Amino acid sequence: MAKSPEAFRTISEVASELDVPQHVLRFWETKFSQIKPLKRGGGRRYYRPEDIDLLRRIRSLLYQDGYTIKGVQKVLRENGAKSVIEDHAPEPDTPRSAPAAGSGLTASQRNAVQAVADELAELSKQLRAIKR
After folding, report:
1. 37-51 as b/e, with b when 16 or more CB fall inside 10 Å?
2. 52 CB-near residues (< 8 Å, 6+ apart)
3. Residue 32 CA to chain centroid, in angstroms?
4. Domain with CATH 1.10.1660.10 in the chain
5. Distance (Å, whole) CA 23 – CA 44
6. What is the pLDDT of residues 47-81, one digit of tens each?
7. Nearest Cα to 71, choosing from 83, 87, 58, 81?
8. Listing from the earlier edge strand, what are the strands of the sheet with 45-47?
9. Is domain 1-94 given the CATH code 1.10.1660.10 in the classification?
10. H helices then E strands: how many in the chain?
11. What pTM was computed for the model?
């Protein structure tokens, strides 16, 4: 039986849903004061739907949009957590390209950066030829 959308989720359920390890969620709690899951006996975390929406947006800013932790902190500080969630709610069924592991860039962003790097290398080569 599936949980209702309003039901609280455990850290393992949220980690699975967002496709991030549990330790990343715990780390984000230390970096983003807006993430405040309920903690019950033994320190077990329970995430509300709005917590999950915020985590989803943080994940998107970090992994899809290429923000740093400090950059996301600034966005949350300037816009507020609720505003960030509402203004940037994902469109339903919008396909997203997967970022490269650890790069923070999508495949299309990496391709664009590579194209610019290639063009710069070619211009540099042409300038060296002119100087001779």
Report:
1. beeeeeeebbbeeeb
2. 9, 14, 17, 18
3. 13
4. 1-94
5. 13
6. 999 999 999 999 999 999 889 999 999 998 888 77
7. 58
8. 9-10, 45-47, 38-39
9. yes
10. 6, 3
11. 0.61
